[in-house]
Design goal:
Radius of gyration: 39 Å
CATH architecture of the largest domain: 2-Layer Sandwich
Helix content: 40-55%
Strand order of the largest sheet: 1-4-5-9-8-7-6
Oligomer: single chain
CATH topology of the largest domain: BirA Bifunctional Protein, domain 2
Strand content: 15-25%
Structural class: alpha+beta
Bound molecules: 3,4-dihydroxyphenylalanine
Shape: elongated
């Protein structure tokens, strides 16, 4: 009997397994009910009790050994299998790397300029309540000035912010003075979509609150920005304007000329393009935010998308956001 055990192990060992078909043959030869292993077990069962005692252990070892040989062969086959699938000559997968969006790059460029003047960067929520987007900024309820900005409402009290001026309120309410900060972000308006306007766009808000801040500081800050961003010879002008949260208020234009058809169209034939609104923070706004009367300040709001269009000669605002890689990758190296 002992010989038979040994023979079985030898037979299993020398069984040639080099394909999955061979492996299956191994299994059918040794491991199934009608296989050699089971045949030996049946034979073992016919032995006397004494012999069973003597040989039981060896039977178990034989069984484990044959199973182990099967497992080793099986591993060999599957790893061969993987190996044969590895083809070093195939071209690799090309993983495209992303890059910064042109609007983000322009915001970064602006941020660097204002940081050099000592402005920090603050951000606020895009879903805003009535107080921060309107009331605190001196837009009374039902006041026609609210119509200046077509609003997407979530409910009576909550809306998508229509401007980044809401973040000014949050900063002033925090009570930490003086404030010298810019607030970049996305804003939303319910407007017809065209090459010049979109239902969402981007602004960089600026706020400077301290003792003795004057309109001169405002002008100087913005002149500096334009010179740095558009170049030292850029022509600018201030026009008196109206915003509920600033008094006096102004808008700043830069001169493009009307030499090309697109400049003519963009500037509506005047050569001048508005790039920002600004003014001295209205005393009512300071009071709404609990700021002491001994402080004054200026604020401004720059339209990022328009400035990006200008700087990079983009003719249609919508191309920024329809995710055409041919358009976006032009700005990869910025
Ligand atoms: N919030 C204004 C708008 O979206 C822009 C603006 C004007 C911001 C004057 C200001 C400001 O901070 O002083 O049209």
């Amino acid at each position: 009997m002992l010989d038979k055990f040994n023979q079985l192990i030898e037979k299993a060992k020398s069984f040639k397994v080099s394909s999955s078909d061979d492996l299956e043959n191994f299994r059918l030869t040794f491991l199934v009910k009608k296989g050699l292993l089971n045949k030996l077990i049946q034979e073992f069962k016919t032995l006397s009790n004494d012999q069973k005692k003597e040989l039981g252990k060896i039977l178990n070892i034989t069984k484990q050994t044959v199973e182990e040989i099967y497992n080793i062969n099986s591993k060999k086959i599957t790893s061969n299998h993987n190996y044969s699938r590895l083809n070093n000559n195939l071209p690799g997968y090309y993983i495209e790397s992303g890059s910064r969006h042109i609007i983000s790059s322009v915001v970064d460029e602006m941020t660097v300029i204002f940081e050099r003047l000592g402005f920090s960067v603050s951000i606020g929520p895009e879903i805003e309540d009535d107080w921060h987007n309107f009331s605190a900024l001196n837009f009374p309820k039902n006041h026609p000035a609210r119509d200046m900005q077509d609003t997407f409402f979530v409910d009576q009290e909550i809306a998508l912010r229509t401007h980044t001026s809401s973040v000014q309120v949050r900063l002033m309410e925090s009570g930490k003075l003086p404030i010298r900060s810019i607030m970049p972000g996305r804003v939303y308006r319910n407007e017809a979509i065209s090459s010049r306007s979109n239902c969402f766009f981007h602004q960089v808000e600026g706020l400077y609150i301290d003792k003795g801040v004057s309109f001169l500081d405002l002008k100087q800050t913005l002149y500096n920005f334009v010179k740095e961003f558009f170049g030292p010879n850029t022509k600018v002008r201030f026009r008196a304007s109206y915003f509920p949260f600033t008094e006096p208020s102004a808008e700043m234009d830069i001169f493009l000329g009307i030499e090309t058809a697109s400049d003519y169209k963009l500037t509506k034939g005047t050569g001048w393009l508005e790039i920002l609104g600004c003014g001295m923070v209205d005393p009512n706004v300071l009071e709404n935010c609990n700021i002491d009367k001994s402080y004054s300040g200026f604020a401004f709001g720059l339209g990022v998308d328009r400035i990006a269009m200008l700087k990079y000669g983009v003719k249609d605002l919508r191309t920024f956001f329809n995710n055409d890689k041919r358009f976006l990758t032009q700005f990869d190296s910025l």
